[in-house]
Amino acid sequence: MSLLRAAVPADVPAILGMIHDLAVYEKEPDAVKNTVEMLHANLFGDNPQIFAHVVESDTAGEPIVGFALWFLNYSTWEGTHGIYLEDLYVRPEARGGGHGRKLLQKLAQIAVERGYARFEWSVLDWNEPSINFYKSFGAGPMDGWHVYRLDGDALTTFGAPAASHVGVKA
């Protein structure tokens, strides 16, 4: 039996542990800089901008077997918010039990209840198990779109005050 619920502060260490597990799965084991304190502040601080749901199971070794971490995005064309799923993770020993589907259905339900126009996420192109899972309930890639990102040195350089462009007002 499993229980799906909104995350509470006591869940933060388990969520962070699964974030580390996800980084290993995605072949970036040393990329996580997040800490318990940072995640706690972002989820439960004065003005949280991210949200999480967890699945508990009494049949697995760990009580929390999966999580979904998400935030709101906005469609200028639709004039309403949407949900962006940053991470979905289910512990390997709990996969196949419907936990990932329950988490995604909960976020879809939130989007529908609130009148949001979309629910979206990114998936690595080599992650066939996840791609097939998403396709199994009707999700598909956005044709013609590519995700771009500024991070690290490129972000620091481009975002530095000296990088201001002539004629561009802040």
From TrEMBL:
Gene3D superfamilies: 3.40.630.30
Keywords: Acyltransferase, Transferase
Pfam families: Acetyltransf_1 (PF00583)
CDD domains in the record: NAT_SF (cd04301)
N-acetyltransferase domain segment(s): 2-161
Protein name per its UniProtKB record: GNAT superfamily N-acetyltransferase
Organism of derivation: Arthrobacter stackebrandtii
Source species taxonomy: Bacteria, Bacillati, Actinomycetota, Actinomycetes, Micrococcales
